[in-house]
């Protein structure tokens, strides 16, 4: 029985280690490697051996196991601190909860078989059921809480407190009620273990409800961001329409008067008044330039946006070397969202800096892909967390099967947006 127990313990530890790594990697969307399993399983085995020497009742091994899994999350998977802690606590909580479920059943079913060969078979079945139940619970948690670095991270640390509470309650149940089995099982004991099983089921249900509420909260944040994006895009379109109407009226008026201007210019030239003619021609040139856009990108929506945004930020030295392809393949509405958010962020960063302020916008096409690059000056302070503006830009890039890359180097900030111009054609 001693060898059997030792083998079962080793299988349980290794199985838990493998399940933990699978869970946290799938939960956080990070790629797992073979050395992750090896290092973590060896760590668990070392912790278990040390706990046996110290006569630990389980608290030490679980606490150090959580620290080990946190280290894997933080330094191997490169997850943020709150996510690393939460993933580690959830991984251990689910495994301990599944263990508690099986213990509740074992406490009633196993004692009558003490001394019987069937005991080994029952323990093997219990071990298999434990892993099956653990996997099912992990899938339920992962379905409710799967996130990426930018999607469900707001207030993620708040989930750590209910997770720790459920975990502490489960540990208390395991330490006080399942430290040993009584060979003589009574009806009262059956009722006690049934009640404990029900409490643990309610604990799992409470955790899943908490995760579901958090997911709904995150979806609310996302919907709010999308609404802000639509509102901003609608405002930009309204500005574009107003600007286009104004330029149309100006152009219409200029075209109506062009014959009169030409007649005046012809009269000045015929009468030999060359200097007056040159002056009049310069005034006509000034009027015609006022009717054109200050930036020519090949897209009127972007031209007006650039003129509006940069025209209000005259303290920033702006350089635009951008020619959008024709046909562009990117909807004007999406261009509004992209350029409006990128320009707002860049202008805000420039204004937060004392001294020279500069903004450079460029574009480059290669095949079906088009790369937009925004480079602006910024302060040397750490950047704030990604807000709605960058999220809107990423949403547009993903719509066109592209990607967004940001980089900060001293007082320079770089934003690159890659899009497939044929994605929606």
Automatic annotation (TrEMBL):
It comes from the Bacteria. The chain crosses the membrane at residues 6-27, 34-52, 58-76, 83-105, 117-141, 153-174, 194-214. The lineage of its organism: Bacteria, Bacillati, Bacillota, Clostridia, Eubacteriales. Keywords: Membrane, Transmembrane, Transmembrane helix. This is GHKL domain-containing protein. It comes from Acutalibacter muris. One of its GO terms (molecular function) is identical protein binding. Signal peptide: none annotated. Residues 333-419 form the Sensor histidine kinase NatK-like C-terminal domain. InterPro entries: HATPase_C_sf (IPR036890), NatK-like_C (IPR032834). PANTHER family: TWO-COMPONENT SENSOR HISTIDINE KINASE.
């Amino acid at each position: 029985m001693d060898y059997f127990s030792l083998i079962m313990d080793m299988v349980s530890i290794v199985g838990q280690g493998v399940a933990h790594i699978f869970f946290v990697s799938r939960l956080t969307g990070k790629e797992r490697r073979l050395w992750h399993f090896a290092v973590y399983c060896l760590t668990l085995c070392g912790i278990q051996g040390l706990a046996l020497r110290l006569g630990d009742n389980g608290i030490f091994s679980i606490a150090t196991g959580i620290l080990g899994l946190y280290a894997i999350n933080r330094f191997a998977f490169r997850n943020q601190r709150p996510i690393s802690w939460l993933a580690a606590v959830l991984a251990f909580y689910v495994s301990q909860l599944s263990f508690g479920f099986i213990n509740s059943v074992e406490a009633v079913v196993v004692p009558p078989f003490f001394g019987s060969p069937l005991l080994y078979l029952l323990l093997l079945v219990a071990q298999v059921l434990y892993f099956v139940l653990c996997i099912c619970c992990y899938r339920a948690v992962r379905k409710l809480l799967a996130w990426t670095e930018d999607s469900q991270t707001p207030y993620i640390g708040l989930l750590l407190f209910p997770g720790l509470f459920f975990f502490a309650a489960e540990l208390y149940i395991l330490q006080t009620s399942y430290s040993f089995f009584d060979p003589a099982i009574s009806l009262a004991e059956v009722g006690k273990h049934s009640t404990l099983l029900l409490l643990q089921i309610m604990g799992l249900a409470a955790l899943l409800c908490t995760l579901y509420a958090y997911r709904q909260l995150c979806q609310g944040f996302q919907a709010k961001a999308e609404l802000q994006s639509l509102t901003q895009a609608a405002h930009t379109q309204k500005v574009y329409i107003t600007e286009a109407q104004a330029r149309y009226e100006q152009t219409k008026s200029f075209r109506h008067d062009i014959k009169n201007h030409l007649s005046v210019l012809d009269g000045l030239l015929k009468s030999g008044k060359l200097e007056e003619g040159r002056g009049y021609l310069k005034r006509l040139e000034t009027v015609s330039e006022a009717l054109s856009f200050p930036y020519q990108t090949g897209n009127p929506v972007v031209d007006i946006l650039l003129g509006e945004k940069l025209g209000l930020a005259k303290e920033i030295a702006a350089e635009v070397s951008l020619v959008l392809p024709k046909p562009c393949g990117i909807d004007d509405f999406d261009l509004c969202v992209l350029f409006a958010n990128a320009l707002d962020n860049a202008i805000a960063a420039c204004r937060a800096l004392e001294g020279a302020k500069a903004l450079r916008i460029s574009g480059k096409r290669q095949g079906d892909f088009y790369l937009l690059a925004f480079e602006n000056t910024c302060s040397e302070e750490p950047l704030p967390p990604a807000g709605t503006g960058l999220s809107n830009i990423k949403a547009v890039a993903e719509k066109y099967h592209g990607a967004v890359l940001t980089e900060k180097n001293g007082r320079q900030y770089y934003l690159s947006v890659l899009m497939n111009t044929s994605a929606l054609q």
